[in-house]
Amino acid sequence: MAQELTRGVWLLELGFPVFGANAFLVDDGEVTLVDAGLPWFGVRRELRDAGYEVADIDRVLVTHYDIDHVGGLRNLSNLDAPVFVGQRDADLLSGTYDPPLFHHKGAFHRLARVLVPIPERFEILPLEDGAEIGGFTAYHTPGHNPGHTVYVHDDLGVGLVGDLVWERDGALTPPEWWDSYDTHEIRRSIRRFAGLVPTIDVLCMGHGTPIPRGGSDALSNLVRRL
User: InterPro entries under this entry (predicted)?
Assistant: First the structure.
């Protein structure tokens, strides 16, 4: 069931706690969908629960190319909006970059592109670090994926961080090695991001319960433990 975290920011819960991912909808006068969940769960239903239809979406921001974050795009057949994604993951998504075959996640991505292809009709727009899209700023945070990107909306005080961090039992943690390309690079990205961004109140991650206040403090606490 969709949940409004703060004015204009909705959590879309797609799947089950151990098998699924969060997506988010931000309405600041333009409607932005951030990630789309797995292909087998109801992103359309969650949108309607929040009071929106697919036709209302002005843009999609993708944090990274993993099935549980982009698979739901397959269910948005009438989406007429650009899909933004970090450059390296845009290459993964489009097939112009082949990840390493003899790497656990690279092999998985090769398989995922065959089993759950993203329809070619979508307009995929690659992003560089620091790009501004409407009220959002994009930050390149590699490690979990080569092109992992997080989005900060300064005016709303919201950070949408995908799998840069996970939430467990009220605390933040880096993603596990088995679901990442480079855990050392993840830690570097967490430190860099925490040091770069302005104050974040609401912290929205792909897995776990969003932090509705004190997001920057939670990130700082994690950095001290790394």
Answer: Metallo-B-lactamas (IPR001279), NDM-1-like (IPR050855), RibonucZ/Hydroxyglut_hydro (IPR036866)
Which H helix or E strand runs over 161? strand 158-162
pTM: 0.96
Gyration radius from the chain CA atoms: 16
Report H helices in 129-205.
Answer: 183-196
First to last CA, the chain: 34
HSE-up of 181 (CA within 13 Å, CB side)?
A: 23
Burial of residue 24 (number of CB atoms within 10 Å: 0-12, 13-18, 19+) = buried
**Would you place residue 193 in the very low, low, confident or very high pLDDT band (cuts 50, 70, 90)?**
very high
The Cα–Cα gap between 65 and 130 comes to 19
Number of domains in the chain: 1
Structure tokens at 70: 């982009």
Torsion region of 170: left, alpha or beta (phi above 0 gives left; psi -120 to 50 gives alpha): left
Q: Report the CATH number at residue 183.
A: 3.60.15.10
Chain segment 28-66, per-residue pLDDT in tens: 999 999 999 988 778 999 999 999 999 999 999 999 999
State which residues form the domain around 154: 3-225
